[in-house]
Design the sequence.
């Protein structure tokens, strides 16, 4: 993949894409995913790590709920990464990550991830460029390790939202009782650093690209869910899994 420039990529679905037809197709994909996840769990030979990154308000929680929420909870786990605890800070930055790498048969979702340590830390200048480069190399080694030694398949998604849509969604959290629990006044302060975040994300995409990132237009939830559901479905189908026979 060439150099990614987020400003050149749309945050919306193609104009000629039929919303109703796409939502119907997504429903069929989710039914397939339910069966495929059951097969993944039963066979126990592969694991999947789904990394979801995005600015505040890009819809990380919603896509996890709507794409993965109907699967067997025994086979899907979600880990949300927030600011490191004192214990986590006393270890290397990947210490808290490796513990949650998926076991064979499992789908593990990271809601934010190890990439926060080369994103928010650089935006706020808690991490210099030299340290960030070393961390990128460590991330690449970590991802290569779990792919080669645990049959882990990695899907990395960046939810690409526009600043205008983000502002609208953050503002809704002050008005909608169902969303007020998500409100954090710091989100608006972080939004002021948009351009710096975009620069750091682009550097991340271009230096940690094995496997490559999928930039998901995220202004419309129905299209975002279609893209992520489709990629996960295609990955699982491509594994040519089979149910194991009776144990002897």
Sequence:
């Amino acid at each position: 993949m060439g150099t990614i420039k987020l400003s050149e990529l749309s945050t919306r679905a193609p104009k000629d894409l039929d919303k109703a037809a796409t939502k119907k197709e997504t429903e069929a994909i989710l039914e397939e995913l339910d069966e495929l996840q059951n097969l993944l769990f039963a066979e126990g030979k592969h694991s999947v790590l789904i990394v979801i990154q995005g600015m505040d308000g890009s819809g990380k929680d919603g896509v996890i709920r709507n794409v993965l929420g109907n699967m067997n909870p025994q086979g899907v786990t979600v880990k949300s990464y927030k600011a490191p605890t004192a214990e986590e800070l006393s270890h290397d930055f990947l210490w808290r990550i490796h513990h949650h790498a998926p076991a064979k048969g499992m789908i593990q979702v990271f809601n934010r991830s190890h990439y926060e340590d080369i994103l928010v830390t650089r935006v706020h200048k808690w991490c210099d460029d030299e340290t960030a480069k070393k961390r990128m190399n460590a991330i690449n080694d970590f991802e290569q390790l779990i792919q080669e030694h645990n049959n882990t398949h990695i899907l990395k998604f960046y939810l690409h939202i526009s600043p205008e849509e983000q502002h609208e969604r953050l503002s809704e959290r002050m008005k909608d009782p169902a969303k007020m629990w998500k409100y954090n006044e710091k989100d608006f302060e972080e939004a002021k650093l948009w351009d710096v975040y975009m620069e750091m994300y682009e550097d991340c995409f271009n230096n940690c690209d094995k496997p490559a990132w999928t930039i998901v237009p995220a202004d419309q939830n129905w299209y975002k869910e279609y893209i992520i559901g489709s990629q996960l479905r295609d990955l699982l189908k491509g594994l040519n899994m089979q149910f194991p026979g009776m144990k002897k």
User: Anything to note?
Assistant: DSSP finds ten helices and five strands in the chain. Strands lie at 47-54, 76-80, 107-111, 152-160, 213-217. The chain has one domain: 38-81+101-237. The CA atoms of residues 123 and 196 lie 6 Å apart.
